[in-house]
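User: I've been trying to design a sequence by hand for this structure and keep getting stuck. Would you show me what you'd pick, starting by listing the structure so we're on the same page?

Assistant: Good idea, let's start from the same input. This is the structure you sent:
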């Protein structure tokens, strides 16, 4: 029988209730997150399977493809699925695969229209500023997101790749519903940002939640804990994130049905206090 998402729930912005274990749709594109995947129908199927397994929170961005991930989500999802889709703006791509920060307010206002069309929605559930742009004052970019919320184009605003200081600055201008930073059991540089999110009741979306398998120094401990649960290291990395804080919303990304099953099943793994401490 297929895995079922047994994670508990979190209310994004106090009102969008989602299961905490979500899905990251960055990897349903071509190589290096550019262009189309080899099997578009298969990519749509993966998203549908995730929803069947009870995943109701999916992360994407205009820059994934660019455009491809959003377009495939638009094809895979219907309003009846009741899935909260979080997308992002603020990074340009080129054919070399570079990621170029671009927080110009006019550009952000353009991108929300494009993302609405590709996702097939009138209002974007959660719109995240992908990465601060050194060439645009951070507050100018944030104000563009705030205005899009005021104007009803987006329900909630999130940030990504920010410091605590930038989070505080943004909160002066808009209600911040989520922060999405790189964070996993092996890389915890942004523990202070996670703690700020806990303090404010903001969702923390740890990207790279399984470090794509590069689990460094904790790899051996993860393997030992995994063995005792007849699980994989990737699954224990996800179980640890869910245990570590009530506000984490991991979005493991995969283009493999077997990995999707494993990742969803990880929400059902209960770590003992000893196992959790061993990984801390
Ligand atoms: N805000 C940002 O700046 C930012 C940056 C990067 C990513 N993100 C978001 O975060 C999401 C997740 O990040 P990520 O994809 O970089 O990292 P990740 O979820 O930690 O790792 C994904 C990688 O691990 C593999 N994998 C997935 N499940 C596995 C399993 N059970 N066993 C073994 N390998 C497995 C995948 O390959 P297979 O396809 O073969 O399964 C893929 O190569 C993305 O989809 C995106 O939505 C955001």
């Amino acid at each position: 029988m297929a895995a079922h998402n047994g994670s508990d729930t979190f209310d994004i912005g106090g009102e969008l209730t989602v299961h905490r274990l979500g899905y990251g749709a960055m990897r349903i594109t071509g190589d290096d997150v550019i262009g189309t995947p080899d099997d578009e129908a298969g990519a749509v199927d993966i998203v549908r399977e995730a929803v069947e397994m009870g995943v109701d929170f999916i992360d994407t961005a205009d820059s994934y493809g660019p455009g491809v991930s959003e377009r495939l989500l638009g094809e895979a999802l219907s309003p009846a699925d009741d899935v909260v889709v979080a997308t992002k703006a603020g990074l340009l791509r080129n054919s070399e695969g570079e990621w170029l920060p671009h927080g110009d307010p006019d550009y952000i206002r353009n991108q929300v229209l494009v993302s609405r069309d590709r996702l097939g929605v009138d209002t974007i559930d959660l719109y995240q500023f992908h990465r601060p742009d050194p060439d645009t004052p951070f507050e100018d970019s944030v104000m563009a997101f705030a205005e899009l919320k005021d104007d009803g184009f987006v329900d909630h605003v999130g940030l990504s790749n920010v410091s605590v200081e930038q989070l505080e600055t943004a909160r002066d201008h808009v209600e911040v519903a989520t922060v999405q930073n790189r964070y996993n059991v092996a890389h915890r540089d942004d523990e202070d940002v996670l703690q700020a999110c806990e303090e404010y009741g903001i969702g923390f979306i740890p990207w790279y939640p399984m470090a794509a398998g590069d689990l460094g120094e904790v790899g051996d401990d993860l393997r030992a804990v995994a063995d005792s649960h007849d699980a994989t290291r990737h699954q224990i990395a996800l179980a640890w994130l869910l245990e570590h804080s009530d506000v984490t919303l991991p979005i493991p990304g995969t283009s493999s049905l077997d990995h999707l099953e494993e990742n969803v099943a990880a929400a059902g793994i209960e770590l003992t206090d000893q196992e959790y401490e061993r990984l801390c």
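That's my pick for every position. To get oriented when you compare it with your attempt: The mean pLDDT is 96. The chain has one domain: 9-278.
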